[in-house]
Amino acid sequence: MKRALPGTETVEAAIDTVRAGAAARGRRPTVTAIERLLDIPHATCHRHYADLIDVHFRPRIPALARPTTPTEPSGSDVRTEANLSRLRKENTDLRRTLAL
């Protein structure tokens, strides 16, 4: 048994709801959120509502805010780099041992 697909007005209302909810939380709206709200699979959404998503949703997504100045590494970043360096050295030593 096939379910009836939501109408254009319903999809547009879902787009508006997702955009408003994302703005209230300070997050980016996603097509996945629209699909979950409408309870339809991604393929169905893409197949039947791609034009609505392209026209009413994507152009209105705010751009991601990018930092203009590079930030100084925090203490955890320095520890992470040291840990990665140690693990890389260990892997190199293990590969050499395996080659022998």
Account of the protein in words:
By secondary structure, the protein is mainly α. It has a domain at 8-60. Helices cover 67% and strands 0% of the residues. It contains four helices and no strands. It has helices at residues 8-25, 31-38, 42-57, 75-99. The longest helix has 25 residues, at 75-99.
Write a brief caption for the model:
The protein has a domain at 8-60. 67% of the residues lie in helices and 0% in strands.
Fill in the keyword field for this structure.
100 residues, mainly alpha, 4 helices
State which percent range the strand residues make up: under 5%
Number of helices: 4
Share of helical residues:
55-70%
Unreliable sequence segments: none
Main sheet: strands, sense, barrel = none
Give the overall shape: elongated
Secondary-structure element pattern, one letter each: HHHH
First-last Cα distance: 64 Å
Number of strands: 0
- On the 0 to 100 scale, the average pLDDT is 82
Radius of gyration: 23 Å
Query: Structural class of the secondary structure composition?
Result: mainly alpha
Region (Disordered): 64-100
Biased composition (Basic and acidic residues): 87-100
